[in-house]
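Pinned message: reference record for Circularly permuted ATP-grasp type 2 domain-containing protein
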Amino acid sequence: MQGYDPGGFFCEMLRPGQPPHPTLTLLMSRLAALPIGSLRQRAIDAERDLLERGITFTVYSDATAIDRILPFDLIPRILTPAEWQHIETGVVQRVRALNMFLHDIYHERKILADGIVPAELVLKNAAYCEAMVGFDVPLNTYVHICGTDIVRDETGEFRVLEDNARTPSGVSYVVENRHMSLRVMSDLMTGLRVRGVDEYGLRLHQVMAEIAPPAVSDPQVVVLSPGIFNSAYFEHVFLAREMGVPLVEGRDLTVEGGKVWMRTTAGLAPVHTIYRRIGDDFLDPDTFNPESMLGVRGLIEAWRRGAVAIANAVGTGVADDKAIYAYMPRIIRYYLSEEPILKNVDTRICAEPDALAYTLDHLHELVVKPVAESGGYGLLIGPHASKRQLEDFARLLKADPANYISQPTLKLSVSPTLCDQGVRPRHIDLRPFAVTGKDTWVLPGGLTRVALKQGTLVVNSSQGGGTKDTWVLA
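Predicted structure (tokens):
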């Protein structure tokens, strides 16, 4: 920890302005006692372990490599019990509101009639699915698995950056990171009470069983993957293994007699719940993209008839659209009559003339994001952009303002991270995972992503970020 200086950012380990926390003080002293050479050797061991275990992801923009490991930083991110309770209750609140919003926009559309959310933002949204109108999903749950991206500002306050309600990735790294910590950093954890993360597979399977057709006593669950070339294929394998269920591709399933069947060596076997990791457009060539080779013909009709359940539901992309995100505080108040526990980052919707004018005038100060992109693609970080980049982006913005939102550049919190120069502060975020059936359960901790390059705010793995183990103190 020699020479460590958070440089005016809120540090997750030092907690400026907060009373000393005994566990954090103990961890700091243990880290300070570790020679830098020991840390580097452990990092090498961890990297070798990740490669041998095949814990990888794919960067589509890199034509030279199919798989690469997701960099793992040894120094954990710590959350106190009080901090975790605040995050957990805030995530549960947002998931409740998201599910109520989705049910409403596919049924009565009261929130649109009351003018709380502009109707065109929903009904003209590319993710809005006409096939879902009037369809009642089991338990009124559309978002069974939600990944809520949370950051911490310079005051130490947690704020939601976005809701991932389609097919959020990363939970496999939460569990594998813990296993890695226990292998290479067990001395750091000795005597500490840290909440476990191994319950996820059990909880996920429980929810998949809860939404199965009601007449089925022992439902067959499967994980539906687009296949080995998908960036999150390792996670698909992991999820199937953790739940103890088959991992299938579209070609392994068929719809006959209005029901879904899985091809096995012993013949056709019934399937009752599908945890799908395929986008809406490719799920069923009869209903969506007729060219899709990834999905299952007739699947949506079988779902509508109640012969199978699908998680997450089709059409949930409206709820995690970045323009809809700006209305989440109002959505929470509308459906729950509660104030948001976790605040949004201040957001301007560039489709609105005043917001567009402000964004263009302050482009050099703001973060501007396309509403339908993810993974850190297509965004502009004004303070880090060149004059040419600002000019080019302004043209994009003027040509299609409805495709963008803008936000202030946050001073994201930092955490001690092992770098070439030693232990240095690097910006982080957090993605807790909520699993919802009859109730919502949140995995203690979540995926802490870290921006490994000095000064950068982009933590996405596709943009060179890594991960940390997240310790929730019991």
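Pinned by admin. Summary line: The mean pLDDT is 92.
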